[in-house]
Amino acid sequence: MVESTPNSARNSTPPPRVRRRPTALSPRLRHRVADLLHGPGWRRVALARRAGAALLAVLALVLALSPRADGGVGLLVAARDLAAGSTLRTEDLAVRQWPADLVPAGALRDPEQADGRMLAGAARAGEPITDLRLAGAELAVRATGSPDAATVPIRLADAGVAGLLTPGSTVDVVMAGPSADEPVVLASRAVVLAVLPPETGPGISPGGRGRLVLVALPRESATRVAAAALSEQVALTLR
């Protein structure tokens, strides 16, 4: 006697498994890339931008870390923080290598070019020294726009005025006239180049002497101001 087998038993072989893609909660990297490549256009644009940004970042890092073939250019820099009006000495200066494509115009390269000259503005340690950072003909010409400009030191009659002046200030140089209400204007539109620090030392009382100010003027006016300052007290009025 042959027992009959139910149809359900004969067809008990399990169906083949269908491999499902991972859910969207944890997609694999290749699936993400495939979705971006075959998705809407804005997704492809976003992928291209991210890839370009990553490539540029890697390139910038490589360029920053790679040694320069030219080794740079030797420039004169401040060896320490220097105040405006400082008279430069060799110990205040150093020569450092500087990228050739970043060398500022007028940069000095030899300590002898700056030794004994006055710094018109304060400088930080490591800052390149250029011709326009030093009081002299180059700075006077650039400040006034006059090719025959000169620099004149003026001792202020009122020491408190120095606190109102900064390099680049435009002033008039005046002196007392025949009467108190008739001042004499020695020069107009002088440009302040530097305000020197107060003088200190034996026999000099604090605030006892007016501070020196360097101003740039056309040579004709500069000569008149320099001659008057030898015998008269002069003052500066701000414009």
Could you walk me through the main structural features you see in this protein, from its secondary elements to its overall organization?
With 239 residues, the chain is α+β, with helices and mostly antiparallel strands. The protein has three domains: 28-59, no CATH class; 70-134, Alpha-Beta Complex (Type Iii Antifreeze Protein Isoform Hplc 12), CATH 3.90.1210.10; 144-239. Helix content is 25%, strand content 21%. The protein contains five helices and seven strands; from the N terminus they run αααββαββββαβ. It has helices spanning 7-10, 29-38, 41-65, 137-144, 219-231; strands at 73-78, 93-98, 149-155, 170-175, 184-195, 212-218, 234-238. The strands form two sheets. A five-stranded antiparallel β-sheet has the order 3-6-5-4-7. Strands 1-2 form a two-stranded antiparallel sheet. β4 (170-175) and β5 (184-195) form a beta hairpin. The model is unreliable at 22-26 and 201-205 (pLDDT under 50).
Descriptive key words:
single chain, alpha+beta, Type Iii Antifreeze Protein Isoform Hplc 12, 3 domains, 7 strands, 25% helix
